[in-house]
Amino acid sequence: MVTSKNSAVRRASRLMKMGMGVAGSYLGYQVQRRFLDEEGARGRQDAFHRKQARKIRDELQDLKGPVMKLGQALSMQTHFLDPELIAELSSLQMQAPPMHPSLMRAQFKSALGKYPEDMFRSFDEKPFAAASLGQVHWAVTRKGEEVAVKIQYPAMREAIESDFRALRAAGVVARLTGHLKEAVISEVERGILEETDYLNEAKNIENFRLALAPLEFVRIAKVHHDLTSDQVLTMSRVPGRRLQEFLLTNPSQELRDKLGTGLTRLFFFQLFCVKALHADPHPGNYLFNEDGTIGLVDFGCVKYLKPEVIRCYAQFWSREWAHDPKLFREIIRVIFGPRVSPNEPRVRRCMNEIRRFYDTYHPLDKPPRTLDLADSKFMNALAKLAKVLLRNKFLSPEFLFLSRTESGMCNLLHILKSRVVTTQIAQEWMPSSKP
Amino acid sequence: MNGPKQKNSNKKPDPGPRPGRREKNKTQTKERILAAALQLFRENGLEGTTTREISRRAQIAEGTLFNYFKTKEDLALYFFQKETDDLIKWFRANKRLQKAPLPEKLFGVIHRQLEYIEPYEDFIGAVFCRSLQPTSSLSPLSFDSLELRLKYLRFIREILAEAEESGDIPRVGDLGAYAVGLFYLGIVAFWLQDGSRGKQKTLALLDRALTVGSHVLKKGNWAW
């Protein structure tokens, strides 16, 4: 007889095996390195990372479901991981296996008490999009409105909790050495668990619909509460094409710039006015239209930010901190923690790197400079900045989410090949430096 | 005195209810008894319910009850007969599922069985425990349940044979049907102790086990 405990043990042992596999060969690599010159070691290090990246991806794909979501979350920390690992992990996006119609129907009934055909005029049993936590189907309500119905895989919450117990056990060494902070694991876990509650997502959609109303180019779905539960979410259909599909229409540079400017405005308006971020910068969560409007979908992972964090982040753009020691101390307190001295070398290194990056790419020139996001130099600099911050343990959980969304947005703009006047947009709604 | 007698002898013999109707009445009584029994099992459990209570609830004489079911276990067997008949009828009418891949077909079949027994969870739990006793007629080894078991196994065998024909799985023969039967018992055991909402852990386990199982069968290169 198979029990839930056994299934959790199997999943845990699989993760442990993966952890041990990586650690085992990493140890071998460390021993080898002692006897080899630096150049040879670098070659092997690249090969090692590629091999491990593939191994991790294969393991994650085998486990599917919740661990895949973790893989996806980690893959979005683009700058925190090696490029090889990111390349492998990014292939995990939107690849979760679909539920077959019988399982989908059983799960729908388990969540809403009736089968789809008893609640909708028509229901497409074939999903049009798969996400790692669920899949989305087109349907028509009894009143004749076209809707998207998101259905969650069964027992996802329990499976995620079990995975995180295993991750904590497997990553005990990394946690002891401070490379993997408990706060970071908890933050990712909280974010993922929050995504399992579709009622929470429904609330987020409504909050964002209201808050983003001033941005006339943004389109957000309407929730059908009578057809929604914590595991089934029914929303009106948002018009638009996914990024890759949209690019196939060969949009003009003017349209690319318009959409890029829209995305940037959306980011800063959310951050500085709504004080919350639609924090899943997955390209599949944005829908693009020829008239320059942008559809925003998937509000499972929304992060409400503390005002002090937003103030500190705004400082990166305004650079007032460079002349104001009080502001500088506040930034250090918020980002690094209250016990860290502003004179510590790692703090200096991080702040110098941040300043260099913003002065180079987002300068306070007049008239404001247009940034060409198609330039891969910018993306490399962003990745380099992130690497420096990681190496110096710059890992406040709030900034983790903030940087995740920012780099996700930059990635989108890079693929779109947009040209955007970033500093001018950032300053449009910039909060005051005073609390 | 003779008159009436004569009159009686002249009367055509009463043909009585037609055989079809008699059968129908018999089935109706059986259904009534089963419904009353299931109600009582839910209220007092399998062990706490007596045959006298069942006959009273079904509004029949206790002797009549014994004409239909000798023991409570016979009643349980009748319940499973109905369940199996319902399953086969449902599957034959479900054209979409018949065209689905094997893991989904088996998922659909087992899920339908779980849906059928869902309202009687306590009763099923008690029956499950009783079936572990070697002397019980509910035991998977008993002769009393043999006919029912064969019906179910043949039905599963039919489904597997189709998958064998199309090359989805290698030839597994009757053993495959037995394996699915045992798997179903395992799933019921898991389902009985599954405390998750809507028994979703059972859904997930069923789906994953069938997907992995058929994958292993397909890729395993079994030389049977």
Comma- or semicolon-separated keywords:
heterodimer; A: 435 residues; alpha+beta; 3 domains; 3-stranded mixed sheet; 18 helices; 12 strands; disordered N terminus; B: 224 residues; mainly alpha; Arc Repressor Mutant, subunit A; Tetracycline Repressor, domain 2; 2 domains; 74% helix
Model description:
The complex is a heterodimer of chains A (435) and B (224). With 435 residues, chain A is of the alpha+beta class. Chain A folds into three domains: 1-94, no CATH class; 97-130 and 133-237; 240-435, no CATH class. Helices cover 58% and strands 10% of the residues of chain A. Chain A contains 18 helices and twelve strands. In chain A, a hairpin with a 5-residue loop joins strand 3 (134-140) and strand 4 (146-152). Chain A is globular, with a radius of gyration of 23 Å. With 224 residues, chain B is mostly helical. Chain B has two domains: 18-69, Homeodomain-like (Arc Repressor Mutant, subunit A, Orthogonal Bundle); 72-224, Tetracycline Repressor, domain 2 (Orthogonal Bundle). Helices cover 74% and strands 0% of the residues of chain B. Chain B has helices spanning 2-10, 19-44, 51-58, 62-68, 72-93, 95-99, 102-117, 121-131, 146-165, 173-193, 200-219. Chain B is globular, with a radius of gyration of 23 Å. In chain B, 25% of the residues are buried. At the A-B interface, helix 5 of A face helix 7, helix 10 and helix 11 of B.
Radius of gyration of chain A: 23 Å
Task: Point out poorly predicted stretches of chain B.
Answer: 1-9
Number of strands of chain B: 0
Overall 3D shape of chain A = globular
Helix/strand order of chain A, N-terminal first: HHHHHHEEEEHHHHEEHHEEEEHHHEHHEH
The first-level CATH class name of the largest domain in chain B: Mainly Alpha
- Alpha carbon gyration radius of chain B: 23 Å
- What composes the largest sheet of chain B? none
Structure classification of chain A: alpha+beta
Described by the principal axes of the CA atoms, the overall outline of chain B is globular
How many structurally independent domains of chain B?
2
Query: Can you identify the CATH superfamily of the largest domain in chain B?
Result: Tetracycline Repressor, domain 2
Count of discrete structural domains of chain A:
3
Q: Kindly report the average pLDDT value of chain A.
A: 77
CATH architecture identity of the largest domain in chain B: Orthogonal Bundle
- Secondary structure tally: strands of chain A: 12
Helix content of chain A: 55-70%
